[in-house]
Design goal:
single chain; about 150 residues; alpha+beta; Aspartate Aminotransferase, domain 1; 6-stranded mixed β-sheet; 3 helices; 6 strands
């Protein structure tokens, strides 16, 4: 069995080169932000997803990156309850909301930063120490094209 890092690299490599770069840049930025979080990785039918969670429980994730051939989004687990004065959150579910990330620079926008801070404050606390491992949670045998 390949290491988790090699598996994640292989999942990302299925995308077009521009998407590969975008996904990697976003992952690096979120890894810096959530250094002690556990990365929960899913290579599912519709999306490639990396969730950042204080625990191994998928329901505890704070944010996740979801990518398909059309683009990348940042999902907020409890986005429906987050303050969003600029109205940038999309979706109409009871809990989850998301934003589209056409580039990694979106993460540095003040309104996105505010959402990230609010999501962290609203979530279970991240571990104070530790490197936050990567766990491959699911790989679907059948997938939509990534390119």
């Amino acid at each position: 069995m390949a290491s988790a890092a090699k598996q994640v690299d292989a999942f990302i490599a299925k995308f077009d080169p521009a998407m590969v770069t975008l996904i990697r840049l976003i992952r690096v930025a979120l890894r810096k932000r959530f250094t002690s979080a556990i990365e929960l990785v899913y290579d599912n039918y519709n999306f490639f997803v990396i969730g950042y969670s204080p625990t191994e429980r998928p329901t505890d994730y704070i944010v996740s990156v979801a990518a398909n051939s059309k683009g990348v989004g940042l999902s907020f687990n409890h986005g429906a309850s987050l303050p969003d004065p600029k109205k940038i959150l999309l979706g109409a579910g009871k809990q989850n909301r998301f934003i589209r990330l056409p580039n990694a620079a979106e993460l540095a926008k003040p309104e996105v930063e505010a959402l990230l801070r609010a999501a962290i404050a609203d979530a279970k606390p991240l571990p104070a120490t530790g490197g936050g491992q990567t766990i491959i949670r699911s790989v679907s045998a059948k997938q939509r094209p990534r390119k």
